[in-house]
Write a structure and sequence with these properties.
Elements (H helix, E strand, L loop, with lengths): L6 E2 L1 H6 L4 E8 L8 H11 L8 H14 L10 H12 L7 H13 L3 E5 L8 E4 L5 E6 L2 E6 L5 E4 L4 E4 L4 E2 L12 E7 L5 H18 L4 E7 L1
Parallel strand pairs: 1-4
Antiparallel strand pairs: 2-10, 2-11, 3-10, 4-7, 5-6, 7-8, 8-9
Helix pairs in contact: 2-5, 5-6
Length: 226
């Protein structure tokens, strides 16, 4: 259980018994379009693709996991692989807003998926489960809002309203995205066996420290999800 009662389903634990995550809740955050520390961390991340000695093994573990629940990692890669591949190809990652830039930078540098959510848009507690096939996911296609079906057996994050992230950490829904005006935030740093707990803690400290610089008056708490 995390600070907001996030839950990992038994069927997900059976799929990857080695999965664990750090849950971070930040309240009273003063996000903004841009901040010097966010720019600095993004620039550092662009140069640090070889920082993590566990990176290749960790990315391969996520590929294996995606294949295990029926996803095709070459088509729908984990969030961290998508970010790192983009930086490796272009050397750039366009800024979004300060908080999103921070957690993207941490994800790239530490080679682990990091999700960020607007808690004010959540209804009920987050659950990581395997979908039963009745769920839908809101996204934009060809400039139009659509509600696409979720595959049965797919690993998803969801709340009481529906799917918030498809294919474990592949794509986030529109409803819970962090905007510059968001003040109550939840982050989840997700790890598999090739990555040591100490490294996940280092990534969490990096994110929490940067959040405290952006918003010194924010309240920031973290806890393991196992």
């Amino acid at each position: 259980m995390g600070l907001i009662g996030a839950r990992i389903g038994d069927d997900v634990r059976q799929l990857r018994p080695d999965f664990r995550a750090i849950s971070i809740v930040a309240t009273g955050v003063e996000n903004r379009i841009d901040h010097p520390i966010a720019r600095a961390l993004l620039a550092e991340a662009r140069k640090s693709l070889d920082f993590a000695p566990w990176a290749d093994a960790h990315l391969e573990a996520w590929r294996e996991t995606f294949r295990a629940f029926g996803a095709k990692p070459k088509k729908t890669a984990s969030s961290v692989e998508a970010l790192r591949s983009r930086v490796a190809k272009s050397g750039e990652l366009p800024p979004i807003n300060a908080v999103v830039d921070l957690y993207n930078a941490v994800s790239i540098k530490f080679a682990l998926p990091v999700g960020g959510e607007n808690l004010d848009s959540y209804v009920g507690r987050p659950r990581l489960i395997r979908a039963d096939g009745s769920e839908t996911f809101d996204t934009v296609r060809d400039g139009r809002l659509i509600h696409e079906p979720v595959d049965r057996g797919e690993v998803i994050w969801r709340d009481d309203l529906g799917t918030t992230c498809r294919r474990w950490n592949w794509r986030q829904c529109l409803r819970t995205r962090i905007e510059p005006s968001s003040t109550r935030l939840w982050f989840v740093l997700e790890a598999l066996a090739p990555m040591a707990d100490e490294a996940v803690e280092d990534a969490a400290r990096s994110l929490c420290g940067a959040l405290a610089v952006i918003s010194p008056s924010a309240s920031i708490d973290r806890q393991w999800l196992r």
